[in-house]
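agent> call fold_tool(seq_1)
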Amino acid sequence: MNPQDLLRTHIIASTETALLKLAGELDMATAPLVDQAVADCLAGGIRRLNIDLAAVTFCDAAGLGALERANRASAAHCTVFRLAGMHRRLRRTFALHRAGSLIAPAMTDLARLRVTAQRATDDRVGTSTHAWASRICPAP
């Protein structure tokens, strides 16, 4: 079966915000579709990425991994990341996989994004990069 038959992605974007609507199954076969849709959104230079999960009927660990990658990619682009449409089944899946940080109110301001970007860079190069993080995520 074709992954596009299992998960539909629809992007509604403005100059500042993108809404990525997902409908169907979010799993190992369809996670690359989410990765690509998120990359397409971030390539537009948006400041906010909202992912609507209201129509997601199934999500496994691979699907959660795609959402975690979307969160990290958003932070690297200084983009606020939010999940919407979290129904009870999805909240349970997130809790079982200890992915609750994705649905917490984290990543809602540029100050936190700056810290995340700095930590990601520190992990890669092992040095303090506060100046670098400040340049890519300037304070409002």
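agent> call fold_tool(seq_2)
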Amino acid sequence: MSWTGVVLAGGRSQRFGGVDKTRLPLGGRTLLQRAVDALAPISTSCLVVGGGPVAGATSVPDQYPGAGPLGGVLTALEAVDTSHALILAVDLPFISGSLLRDVQRAGADAAAAVVVLLPDGRLALCLSVRRACAPAVREMWSRGARRVRDLENLVPCRRVPAEARTAADALWNINDPLTYARALELAEHDCPAC
């Protein structure tokens, strides 16, 4: 069993006015570098889908741009050569190593995919998918699936529930200038070893 850490970095950043979020600085690193650094300790290699070059990772273009995160997931599954992909959105700068390890452990035992379920019922863009699921994901894509939520149709799909505190801390999502400003405040207390 081997893992590729994947950073999905190909979004259009519409709520951010088209600004390339991957290059935003936070705590002395870009959002993209933070995501790669979070995945590197628990992955054989790192892959960035849809983003520019970054130390410690290989970059590939999103083969299905502009149509939602499932295209990035499919691009990753078609590009990795490991048995599993541990996938993370670039805009989750405070992701914890412990949560990533929880998803990885669950993914090791799962036959298909593992998603992180937030307390309000949404899914975080932090998941594990077996590379062998690429044909099923491609089929879902061809039928119009575009959301992470659609991965729950991979049977069996396991869920890792995130507690409210984890959702508020480790799964803080930078979607717009206001959430970025808040992340800059939070980064004053950022601990890269966490």
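agent> summarizing second result for user.
The two ends are 25 Å apart (CA to CA). Residues 58 and 123 are 26 Å apart (CA to CA).
agent> awaiting next instruction.
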